[in-house]
Amino acid sequence: MLKVEGVAKAYKKAGLFSREREQVLADIHFACDYGECLGIIGESGSGKSTLGRLVLGIEQPDRGSILFEGESVTKRRGRAGKISAVFQDYTSSINPFYTVEAAIMESLRLIGMGGQEASDKLDFLLDQVGLDRSYRQKHPHELSGGEVQRVCIARAVATNPTCIVLDEAISSLDGSVQMQVLQLLKQLGQTYRMSYLFITHDLQAAAYLCDRVMIVHRGRVVETVAVEQLKDVQSAYARKLLGMVML
Amino acid sequence: MAVLEVADLQIWDSGTNQCLVAGSSFQVKAGSCLAIVGESGSGKSLTCKAIMRLNDSGLRQSGEIRFKGENLLALSEKEMRQKRGKQICLIVQNGMRAFDPSCVVGVHLLETIATHFDWGRDEITTRLTAAMESVMLRNPREIMNKYPHQLSGGMLQRIMIALALVLAPDLIIADEPTTALDAVSAFEVVEQLMALRQNTGCAMIFVSHDLGVVKKIADEVLVMKEGAVVESGAAHQIFSKARHEYTRYLVSNKLALSQRFSQVMGGVDVAEG
């Protein structure tokens, strides 16, 4: 379904006249199947979020290709409504002037839904993420972090996407709220048969949700391994990461 | 002997009269580490700031905070300033906001140390360099000449720890020091904090919502919910036989998350329930 081949990305280094470029990603290959949950693990600065943005088509790679169902993600028509995203910073994910209703309605309109049908769908979506109708008229600042993240998930699911990119979607949440959101994601993944690209630095959360994990270090893929084989990782870096998990 | 005794601490908003922390009492024994856990909005950070007397003027506090037998609330602002840093150190969540953004890190560090000790510039630099090397920061001189935005969160957090190492306080208050960091930096910072405790023998208050970290570092745990202390006790007791329902809820959530990981890792480090 999603195929990433030989992708490289460099950014200009800070400074007005700087010509140096910093290689953020180099030679990335991976594929993600329908209904699969692929975890992308790495520390800050490893380029994992950049990879997420490239997959979403928000940015373009310098080299290589990213194909979604056989078509390049840079073409909007090919991916409209099929790839969604949930980001880490829930305070800036929803337009502060929008109510919950307006935020979710926006993505329902994208797939050409309107009127009573959209209104029913909205109630259904809110119910599915564990919120009730009373949330429709609320603004994002009236909600807690976990609730905003639930709205973001409802918005992402609204278009019945094939794939959702979750960029550190649970990292700014509290321990117990993290768990609730993970459970929600797991359950939604099963009902909708969506694939997830779960970008995180938290191996425990990745092990909970994912089928496969890809470990990224300094812009390169170090190792890709099925979660069941996590303890048999070969590379030194992956072993180091496993050793640093605080249970 | 207790380094810090907090008795019936109440914090409320003087504008709305809303009670934020309702009568919490606890003590920190010399050389031990007390962890305060709870969800956001449970009053963990307010409690820390109340000890340092750093809360906004709109917030009022009552009760008694005794540091080595001395009531902190009765001190004048000037006397309190001398306590902060020298005897009680605060390490905050966001390293970026802890340092002065308009000057290089070194200026800030030298200034802080110079207010508490009358050492010469050279002596301060030597001690600081040694401290920074011990928290695994390479090239201390180069780091001291950088602005906070040029350094990563994990590095800034370790610089804070290095500063604490030089000041050698009796009590360190670490308010969510690992929350803004990724798993690798968080692990390193926790290691350094543990080493710091070992080297200086100071007591510590460690605030976190991540029970994994708490389990690693804490001797005693205080559980807070909506401004009230719901349970306190030795760390192993909280994790294995918690009395309060809320504590059990937090612990079970933590276990549910780590269970799958422990399972695929072949039960090598299965968290003891």
In short:
The complex is a heterodimer of chains A (247) and B (273). Chain A is built from 8 helices and 10 strands.
Could you name the CATH homologous superfamily of chain B? P-loop containing nucleotide triphosphate hydrolases
In the predicted model, the low-confidence regions of chain A spanning at least 5 consecutive residues are none
Strand residue percentage of chain B: 15-25%
Number of domains of chain B: 1
Compute the number of strand runs of chain B. Answer: 10
Multimeric organization: heterodimer
Most residues in contact: chain pair: A-B, 30 and 35 residues
Count of separate DSSP helical elements of chain B: 11
Radius of gyration of chain B: 19 Å
The number of helices of chain A is: 8
Helix content of chain A: 25-40%
Give a written overview of the molecule:
The complex is a heterodimer of chains A (247) and B (273). Chain A is an alpha/beta fold. Chain A has helices at residues 48-56, 76-79, 100-110, 115-128, 145-157, 175-192, 203-209, 236-243, and strands at 2-12, 21-32, 37-41, 63-68, 71-72, 83-86, 163-167, 195-200, 212-217, 220-226. Chain A has a domain at 91-160. Chain A is 34% helix and 26% strand. In chain A, the strands form two sheets. Chain A has a six-stranded mixed β-sheet with strand order 6-7-8-3-9-10, with helices on both faces. In chain A, helix 6 (175-192) links the parallel strand 7 (163-167) and strand 8. Chain A is globular, with a radius of gyration of 18 Å. The mean pLDDT of chain A is 90. By secondary structure, chain B is α/β, with parallel strands linked by helices. Chain B has a single domain (2-264), classed as P-loop containing nucleotide triphosphate hydrolases (Rossmann fold, 3-Layer(aba) Sandwich). Chain B has eleven helices and ten strands. Chain B has helices spanning 44-52, 77-83, 95-98, 105-116, 121-134, 140-144, 153-167, 183-200, 211-217, 235-240, 245-264, and strands at 2-13, 19-29, 33-37, 59-67, 70-71, 88-91, 171-175, 203-208, 220-225, 228-234. Chain B has a six-stranded mixed β-sheet with strand order 6-7-8-3-9-10, sandwiched between helices. In chain B, strands 2-1-4-5 form a four-stranded antiparallel β-sheet, with helices on one face. In chain B, helix 4 (105-116) packs across helix 5 and helix 7 (153-167) packs parallel to helix 8. The longest helix of chain B is centred in the last third of the chain and has 20 residues, at 245-264. The two termini of chain B are 31 Å apart. Classes of the chains: A alpha/beta (247), B alpha/beta (273). Chain A binds chain B through residues 43-45, 144-145, 174-179, 182, 201-205, 207-208, 227-231, 241-242, 244-247, and chain B through 39-40, 152-153, 181-187, 190, 209-213, 215-216, 249-250, 253-254, 256-258, 260-262, 264-266, 268-269, 271.
